[in-house]
Amino acid sequence: MLRLLLPFALVLGLLVAAALSDRPQPPADWTYIDSQPAFTLDPLRTSYEQDIRLNNALWDGLVRWDTADFSITPGIAESWEKSPDNLRFVFRLRADARWSNGETIDAHDIVYSWRRGVMPDTAADYSKLFFSIRGAEAFFRWRAEQLRGYAARPAAERTRDAAAALRREAWERFESAVGVSAPDARTLVVDLERPTPYFLDICAFVPTFPVHPPSLERALKIDPATGRVDEGSAWTRPGALVCSGAYTLASWRFKRDMRLERNPAYWDTDHVRADSIRVLIIEDPNTSVLAFRTGAADFATDVLTDYIGDMLRESASAASEGKPRTIHGFTRFGTYFWSFNCTPTLTSGLPNPLADRRVRRALALATNKREIVERVRGVGEVVADTLIPPGSIPGFDPARSTVGARHDPEAARALLQEAGWTREAGASGPPVDASGAPFPIIDMLCSTGSYHVPVALAMGAMWERELGIRTRVVAKETKTYRQDLRRRDYMVARGGWFGDYSDPTTFLNIHKTGDGNNDRGFSSPRFDDLLGRAAAEPEPAARLCLLEEAERVTTEDELPILPLWHYRQFFLYDGGRFTGVTTHPRMIQMLQQMGPKDVLSPAERRAAAPWSGPR
Amino acid sequence: MMRLLLNRLIQAPIVLLAVYTITFALAWALPGSAVMNDEGKRPPPEVIAAMEARYSLHDPAAFYVQYLRGVITRLDFGPSLRYTDWTVNDILAGSLPVSVILGLAAMLIALVIGVAAGVIGAWKPGSALDWAATLLALVGISTPAFVIGAGLLLLFPVTLGIGRVASWGRPQDILLPALTLSLPFAASIARLTRMGMLEALQADYIRTARAKGLPESAVILRHALKNAFLPVLSYLGPASAAAMTGSFVVEKVFNVPGLGQHFVSAVLNKDLFLIMGVVLVYAAMLIGFNLAVDALYGWVDPRIGRG
Lengths: 615, 307
Description:
The complex is a heterodimer of chains A (615) and B (307). Chain A has helices at residues 2-21, 49-58, 107-117, 136-151, 160-177, 199-203, 213-219, 285-293, 308-320, 357-365, 369-377, 409-418, 452-467, 478-486, 505-508, 525-536, 540-558, 602-608; strands spanning 30-34, 63-66, 71-74, 77-82, 88-93, 180-184, 187-191, 221-222, 229-230, 247-253, 257-262, 276-281, 299-300, 327-340, 382-383, 442-447, 471-476, 492-498, 561-573, 578-579, 595-596. Chain A is of the alpha+beta class. Chain A has 3 domains: 27-59 and 245-326 and 573-581 and 588-601, Periplasmic binding protein-like II (D-Maltodextrin-Binding Protein, domain 2); 60-236, Dipeptide-binding Protein, domain 1; 332-568, Dipeptide-binding Protein, Domain 3 (Dipeptide-binding Protein, domain 3, Roll), CATH 3.10.105. In chain A, the strands form 5 sheets. In chain A, strands 1, 10, 11, 12, 13, 14, 15, 16, 17, 18 and 19 form an 11-stranded mixed β-sheet that branches. A 4-stranded antiparallel β-sheet of chain A has the order 4-5-7-6, with helices on one face. Chain B is an all-alpha fold. Chain B has a domain at 97-260: MetI-like fold (Orthogonal Bundle). Chain B is 77% helix and 0% strand. Chain B contains 13 helices and no strands. The longest helix of chain B has 36 residues, at 88-123.
């Protein structure tokens, strides 16, 4: 018997030892739950929301957003000047801008960082943001070509030295051909390719935030076989990461937790609320709600449960009894829509009836968006008539010029008839064309695991009821869905878009002929012309008018998409004791101003008790 | 005995190579791009080409050989394509110990519950106790972990205020997830024990033991259980490996930072290096545990070694 018990005793001992060796973290000023772990802390590679949130706290940009209205405020640059033709920006860097290791942030560091952004071997999702800089796009293509040429050389010529020389050549080229330069340590001069009214907004967006060049130079390798620069991943580790923002990275455990601590070297640390923040990763939506309710966190960045509607009602009834709300929903800078395949022929080789804009508009008019938003979703989203959420971009009001395609089944039937699809009143079958062929069954492509299928079913039922058009829902796993979308192997597909900077083009560009995000194969000379004229228009108000017209063309006449609602984001926090959350549609939350109300920033503490400070 | 173990040791690399090859082929056939974000913004094609070239994604043969060479010579499982700040080695180093601890604790609980339920059932077959034990086994096998897990969470931390939700790192945090993970294993062990015990209790040597006047507890625990335990022992090998490589559902519900989640998420993300890493580690563990059980067999039952 002892023989049997011995392994048990061993296992028990091992368990106790393991449990004791894994000590929990010290408490932080506040904790938030994120449903997704960070993908990267490299600002340049930042693309996802949770990364943007973290990197906004770890890094500083040339300029920053005031999250009350998303106007531009100083960051590393204390001031800037714009040339009258809008083609040159001169930034003056503040003297006290420092890296977290105490070194001064130099204008050359920004040149270094932006050069990374336009080298295809180090660039990432947002490299296009840099293309408004003079010569940047041409340099990007040149570098890709240079690397191709290098890889074609005989193996004996591809040595470590040759690869290093290749990089030096690229640097020299960048210096001479791209409009970014640092005449001295505190001045940065940027020349633009064309007037870009939103250039400062781009400078406030994480992917353009500078990184610490010595950290990267220590980490990087140049592959002698291909000439490519590989920076590895070690430099973003706690202890190694030299950052520039309100916080430094104290610990990071994969898909588990993260701890941020105040960066005393940050120039504006006086206005940073909490000394420490803990990030807790909980992927399961139910567990994250339970964790919040049992007090494990002060804030949750996303509520993804199926019962948001119930939570909202519960919170509203609690609020009517005078208790603070715990779930908060805000409209976002993004829109949920369904895409129409606009190409003349489907991948099956059959003609595409949706290539006719009248058919697309008929389908849109037959859709009762309000009913879908209220009955299928039921979480208070705003019905979308346009791609760009109204009121999200200063000076731009699409509602001024368009009503989109509002629910009107009568007009839908008439329009379908006009497009050549006839159907007897009261008939049960689908409409037929002149040759008597029935309208094909529409495949509605979406990804699994979310609310897309119920939405598709509701839309399909409306189309059948009003127009006799039959549909079939095709739900696929996300990767397959994306692949089908890119190949345009669909008729109607779910889609969505979030804006990045404060300009209508951040949305409208997806409809440009040949754009990388134009999954619809949509091509309208009229629309392209409007966008082209807007790009050339120096007068901001006139430019926005042209873009409003472009928005009208797509939402009222051509309809490559059918917008359903503007996204809504849900947070969990106690409205009575948590503060610093912005409700602006841009929905970029700055951790440095968030926290429990009783946690005060150094500036607030001084203001509250001016006599207790050091004399 | 030594010969058997030696044989198994020689087979191990061949089995691992086969596992690697099959996994590689399946992972490669997954739809979609490994380097492109599913929901993020799309980079220009030049950036995608550069990333694919960095990881040899354009050349399956080169990838196959390079990766294998990295694993064998440096035990380097490569970078994560999705979580670009991490290497697969980092991810495994963080999550494997967690899964091993959780799996060991679950197996411990499963053995205690399972053997006890099996012995009680076999002691008085057909009695109310036997029925209760059988029912427990049935519930354990047929109730999905997300039901039991969510129920335990709602009962203990949420309603009674005992323990925490989504906490890991304190010794008491192990209990609820380990209990949830253990139930299906406990049910199997209970059934195996009950069957073995029923058979053993019919044997002649038990009659002899009883005739000698030994107390019933000694008859059951010392004599019958020892023989009845052998089928349980052979089940323990693969079961331990399964428990220790984690459970996607249990890890999700209790937010345990273990290995199991990567089996699912790596495939969904087409994170090739991570898929290969977790599968190879799982295969190695499975081989290791079967080997350990073979060795234990000879130790618990010396007849096997001599045979």
